[in-house]
Amino acid sequence: MRPTDPTFPAPATLAALPTPSLLLDVPRMDRNVARMRARLARLGVPLRPHVKTCKSDRVARRILGGAPGPITVSTLREAAEFAALGYTDILYAVGIVPSKLPQVIAMRRQGTDLALVLDDAEVARAVAAAADAAGVTLRVLLEIDCDGHRSGLAPDSDALLEVADALRSPQVVVDGVMTHAGESYSCRSDDALRAMAEQERAAAVRAATRLRAAGHPAHTVSVGSTPTALFAEDLSGVTEVRAGVFVFFDLVMAGIGVCRTDDLALSVLTTVIGHQRDKGWAIVDAGWMAMSRDRGTASQPLDQGYGLVCDAEGRELPGLLLRSANQEHGIVGRRDGAPGPMPELPVGTLLRILPNHACATAAQFDGYHALGAQGEGSEWWARFRGW
Ligand SMILES: Cc1ncc(COP(=O)(O)O)c(C=O)c1O
């Protein structure tokens, strides 16, 4: 068992770590953060990072420049954990349901400015009733569907104004709109990404404009996914950008073309535990329990299996993939058609696997072994888990 104390010193060398372990290359992470911040600074819009990717105070502070700042969360557990650490401005960006309102109201009473998201008139009435009954002000963003990917109200729909009207109460502020262009993950060219970013912006601004015309404050216009944040050319009318996975990047993001594989800040350290040399396999102790079941690159032009294989220092081993995964076994082999022989990789060899989906892989672990510029592992950074 590893202590959850975020300052617990991790062993200084990779060889001393248990495997599988989650490694965080801090200089790469800092580079990714600087890139996003520079991009948004040019566009003149602040970042409200989605901390569902990192679920870590240490990482969140690094994104925010050292101190707690505005964040986006995907669970009330994240909201509570971050609030306890001094984060007061939190957007809970998953549709609220009435059963969760007592928890929300308790957090509001404790001083957390927790904004909610919804897209349903019945839920809106329940939120207004709960706020009135508690005498607590609730700030609500209406979720807008900008791309048919998931939930939300169409920006030109009658339903948008009906849901907003269902929130009319002295205790509820219809503070604006939020949208997430999930279809950006299916884009296959820079032009498509730029167009998707504009589609996301235009839908959110249009919805907010209609709400204002109907007498609602609608100050907040919140957009963002990592691909649209990095490819937007104009964010006029937008008041904040939510991006999350940019902090680590992953193979899915590399497949979309928003980063390179040497930008990936997360990897799983694993040990070679055996071979099936006639099949060209090395067996490692990172299966899907360590990597997650996420096969996000399977639908991309370049399928990366369960991850790209690197040596212990993080240098890619050309043509090597984690081809398949059982719970605690991974099978390393050559990509179909890759030239050259399988490297030796004696039992005990340490390898690093770059993940398909950083959020999913990180969620398999209690924390990060934070590595410095020379690859030294000096600190253990705890993560939150659960709901
Ligand atoms: C509502 C919402 N906002 C923002 C994000 C962040 O997007 P990304 O992970 O592409 O940075 C997500 C990711 O799923 C999301 O669901």
Features:
387 residues, alpha/beta, 23% strand, TIM Barrel, 29% helix, six-stranded antiparallel β-barrel, Lyase, Ornithine Decarboxylase, Chain A, domain 1, elongated, disordered N terminus, binds pyridoxal-5'-phosphate, 16 strands
What does this structure look like?
The protein has 387 residues and is α/β, with parallel strands linked by helices. The protein folds into two domains: 27-247, Alpha-Beta Barrel (TIM Barrel), CATH 3.20.20.10; 261-382, Lyase, Ornithine Decarboxylase, Chain A, domain 1 (Beta Barrel). The protein is 29% helix and 23% strand. The strands form two sheets. A seven-stranded parallel beta sheet has the order 2-3-4-5-6-7-8. A six-stranded antiparallel beta barrel has the order 9-10-13-12-11-14. β11 and β12 form a beta hairpin. The longest helix is centred in the middle third of the chain and has 24 residues, at 190-213. The radius of gyration is 22 Å and the shape is elongated. Bound molecules: pyridoxal-5'-phosphate. Pyridoxal-5'-phosphate (PLP) binds at residues 50, 72, 93, 180, 224-226, 242-246.
